[in-house]
UniProtKB/TrEMBL annotation:
The keyword Transcription applies. Pfam families: LacI (PF00356), Peripla_BP_3 (PF13377). This is LacI family transcriptional regulator/LacI family repressor for deo operon, udp, cdd, tsx, nupC, and nupG. Residues 1-45 form the HTH crp-type domain. One of its GO terms (molecular function) is transcription cis-regulatory region binding. Keywords: DNA-binding, Transcription, Transcription regulation. Residues 4-58 form the HTH lacI-type domain. InterPro entries: HTH_CRP (IPR012318), HTH_LacI (IPR000843), LacI/GalR-like_sensor (IPR046335), Lambda_DNA-bd_dom_sf (IPR010982), Peripla_BP_I (IPR028082). It comes from the Bacteria.
Length: 339
């Protein structure tokens, strides 16, 4: 069925489209009788306003964009649930975009959000992004942007992250407390801020507890279980012979878990393993995976609240806020040697 337009109403009532438009907006310039005829016919024809046209009139679309690397990642799915919880209550629709960790796709997502007149957007930066000019250009124009999880520090806007350093420190300390001496860290992509902070937490925990830091004990991969299983296979064939592995994400840890089992080794006796994120499936592995829990839902809520404040009251939110959420270590059988 063809969508009814203002032109259809105007034609049937022999009015101009501008008169019909003003009548639908309850303008004081239009008489009561004309408004009545327009509204009655609009209801009869089941007319619904064009949201794009309304956004041009009102300067707001009540849509916000969310760019995530991969919606199939349970962590980002939970963050989005938190975003939608706040957005719905505030009268905003959420439009989801995926970068698939690809810079070019991320740039296109940003352009689409701006060109379709969304009111602002939330973004977790793609793994392959090293040029941030597509964000900076919009921020310089005053377009509302909030970074979450994978943040970019150089743009002066709101950000929401977890304390990656704290989580990594406590995860490494847990492995040390279990008697591990050769603890390998399998990091995410080295240029990402979350990878740098988690590496620093690992390194500091070792030094604070009298263990040396060896660069050759730090390996890196993408936040992907398929790629990480290959890295873990290579690690297990190396001369390092780790007795503990701290993985920078649960997806990486899942790859390690599979590689350890495949090699005929046991957790935690041969290798104690801990991840980061505490995805729902972590507890369903055999043995269940220890992990650093992130408050993903709270992250989504906090990011949405900050963005909506930027949209509604830009002049009152000129001071950028970086909200850091705390983590906690969830200990399960994959790392628990001592009870």
């Amino acid at each position: 069925m063809r969508k009814v337009t203002i032109k259809d109403i105007a034609k049937q009532l022999n009015l101009s489209t501008s008169t019909v438009s003003r009548a639908l907006r309850d303008s004081h310039e239009i008489g009561i009788e004309t408004k009545r005829k327009v509204l009655e016919l609009a209801e009869q024809l089941d007319y619904t306003p064009d949201p794009v046209a309304l956004s041009l009139l009102n300067s707001h679309s009540n849509d916000i964009g969310v760019i995530v690397p991969d919606i199939s990642n349970p962590f980002f799915a939970i963050v989005i649930a938190g975003i939608e919880d706040v957005a719905f209550a505030e009268g905003y629709h959420v439009v989801i975009y995926q970068s698939h960790d690809d810079y070019e796709r991320e740039v296109l997502n940003v352009k689409h959000i701006y060109n379709r007149r969304k009111d602002g957007f939330l973004v977790a930066v793609a793994t392959n992004t090293t040029d941030f000019s597509h964000f900076k250009n919009l921020h310089d124009k005053g377009f509302p942007i909030v970074f979450f999880d994978r943040i970019y520090e150089e743009i002066d806007t709101h950000k929401v992250a977890v304390d990656d350093y704290e989580g990594a420190y406590n995860a490494t300390k847990h492995l040390i407390d279990q008697g591990c001496q050769r603890i390998v860290h399998i990091s995410g992509p080295p240029h990402l801020l979350i990878s740098k902070r988690r590496l620093q937490g690992y390194k500091t925990a070792l030094l604070d507890h009298g263990l040396p830091y060896h660069e050759e004990y730090v390996w890196s991969t993408h936040f992907d279980s398929q790629q990480s299983i290959e890295v873990a296979r290579q690690l297990l064939k190396s001369a390092i012979h780790p007795d503990g592995i701290f993985a920078a994400s649960d997806n990486i840890a899942i790859g390690c878990h599979a590689a350890i089992t495949e090699a005929g080794l046991t957790m935690p006796k041969d290798i104690a393993l801990i991840g980061f994120s505490d995805l729902p499936m972590a507890a369903m592995l055999n043995p269940p995976l220890s992990s650093v829990a992130q408050p993903a839902f709270e992250m989504g809520r906090s990011a949405a609240e900050l963005l909506i404040k930027l949209i509604k009251k830009p002049n009152e939110n000129t001071q950028s806020i970086t909200k850091v959420l705390h983590t906690n270590v969830v200990i399960r059988a994959s790392s628990l040697r001592k009870t």
